[in-house]
């Protein structure tokens, strides 16, 4: 069975440029990783022994050897011990907020718009 990233909206598998990382053992980091996934997957029960998050959800600073991999001197990416995923998949409300894009303003319902028009007309 091929492992995939457990983050909703991401179906990455191990391939060139993408690596999968198992949940950490330390409880503080484990909870942060779980919280990250729960923000993308409503009702997620938590990680299993096979749960992984792909390298796309980490910043470049999260890796010990990012430069070596980019230069072709190493094949596998290794996370810092305290790395926390923080890059949400494109198209989610979290990715837009993290990217600095404005969140859409909620539009009033049609009944509310009708009331506003009637009030102006009075």
TrEMBL record:
It is found in: Nucleus, Nucleoplasm. SUPFAM superfamilies: Glucocorticoid receptor-like (DNA-binding domain). Residues 1-88 form the THAP-type domain. One of its GO terms (biological process) is endothelial cell proliferation. One of its GO terms (molecular function) is sequence-specific DNA binding. Keywords: Cell cycle, Coiled coil, DNA-binding, Metal-binding, Nucleus, Transcription, Transcription regulation, Zinc, Zinc-finger. GO terms for cellular component: nucleoplasm. Its main location: nucleus. InterPro entries: THAP1/10, THAP_Znf, THAP_Znf_sf. Belongs to the THAP1 family. DNA-binding transcription regulator that regulates endothelial cell proliferation and G1/S cell-cycle progression. Specifically binds the 5'-[AT]NTNN[GT]GGCA[AGT]-3' core DNA sequence and acts by modulating expression of pRB-E2F cell-cycle target genes. This is THAP domain-containing protein 1. It comes from Oryzias melastigma (Marine medaka).
